[in-house]
Amino acid sequence: MSDSLLTLKSAIEHLCTRETIGNPDEARRTFLDFRAALTRGEVRAAEKVDGRWIVNAWVKQGILLGFRLGELQEMSDGDVLSLSIRTPSLPAV
Question: What is the value of pTM for the model shown?
Answer without folding.
Answer: 0.75
